[in-house]
């Protein structure tokens, strides 16, 4: 096995699991669409709340997609093969997250202009929102994958992943929505983006090692 | 494949779920050896293979590969070892050929076709593994034995789910590997008198 053959197989598996990815995307769209219908559809309410709505929906969609990250690999024994492959397990995990991020986040980003328009998000806020999603969402994946690895041998682990991981997502949601609000008010928001980038980089450094420990423990369980 | 390799296990102690599986186990394997691990169900045969390949950590003991102590870091051994466990590590959503390319990316197409012909999988090359039977899935995993150049093979019940022809093919391949200077450690309840050069008995 090589890193490139691993990455290629990851993309192929994700492509054939498109139902899961589609479910996450559908869930994201439904949450965003239902919000104005259920709460308030006036532009005065939706424009300031848009970033928060989109980020909360993104977090839930990502959690939904991440819960099954290692489950299939654990069932068929390929997770064990990764552990004993002689390749760096943290690096394999980084590659797995990159593949997941691309497959889950790209469709979400593609739907964003339409949803932002629907929520009356002004263009200044829209570009800030895209910026926060680009620099902040990797941290969602790097943090969330730890929960996925910890609960890999638990059949109904989705709720546990949510309880374990959600508190760590709060700073990302707070800084992202603050960045969009600052942009909407015409204030500089690069500081918030820098904070989000720092969170993503910090999780990139820490998460693969923690996930590798959790994966090894799950394989041994 | 290494021209000469050896594996030395000294005073190994494996504990699983607060139960001693083997204590003070010592044996060595050299190029050309086929070692069968014997023992009752739950004696720790699979755990021993996992400890050797580094999926599990022993409580105590020393593991040396080709003279180098690999007890704390098994990466040198792992790069030269092929492990097939109870769960064979075959991705259900990938086809037979994709699974093999995942594990052996550098294999050329002719060699891949030859191996698949030998294993009677050539007609299923592009079939997703989830559509194959248990025996065929195991053959997909065992195809690695035909295509990989690794010296040390660690096989956990490799004959399980195989039909008579599959067993014969695998026995033949193991013999070829041993003759070429490889090392094989396997667990099996199969009678392997002609195949195994040595047995290691795990006592409860």
From TrEMBL, chain A:
Chief location: membrane
Q: What is this protein called?
A: Heme exporter protein B
Family, similarity comment: Belongs to the CcmB/CycW/HelB family.
Give the protein's biological function: Required for the export of heme to the periplasm for the biogenesis of c-type cytochromes.
Q: Is DNA damage one of the keywords UniProt gives this record?
A: no
Q: Which Pfam families match?
A: CcmB (PF03379)
| Transmembrane regions listed in the UniProt entry | 21-39, 45-66, 87-114, 126-152, 159-180, 192-215
Alphabetically sorted, this entry's keywords are: Cell inner membrane, Cell membrane, Cytochrome c-type biogenesis, Membrane, Transmembrane, Transmembrane helix, Transport
In which domain of life is the source organism classified? Bacteria
**CC per GO annotation:** plasma membrane
The record's subcellular locations are: Cell inner membrane
Q: Name one GO biological process term.
A: cytochrome c biosynthetic process
Please list the GO terms describing molecular function. heme transmembrane transporter activity
Instruction: Specify the protein's topology with respect to the membrane.
Output: Multi-pass membrane protein
TrEMBL record, chain B:
Q: A single Gene Ontology molecular function, please? A: transmembrane transporter activity
Q: Cite a single GO BP annotation.
A: cytochrome complex assembly
| Signal peptide boundaries | none
Question: Residues in domain ABC transporter?
Answer: 7-203
What InterPro entries does this protein's entry cite?
Answer: AAA+_ATPase, ABC_transporter-like_ATP-bd, ABC_transptr_haem_export_CcmA, P-loop_NTPase
> What start-end ranges are recorded for coiled-coil regions in this protein?
none
Alphabetized, the UniProt keywords read:
ATP-binding, Cytochrome c-type biogenesis, Membrane, Nucleotide-binding, Translocase, Transport
* Pfam families the record matches: ABC_tran
**Which superkingdom, per the lineage?**
Bacteria
| PANTHER family hit by this protein | ABC TRANSPORTER I FAMILY MEMBER 1
Q: What is this protein called?
A: Cytochrome c biogenesis heme-transporting ATPase CcmA
- Native organism: Marinomonas arctica
Q: Gene name?
A: ccmA
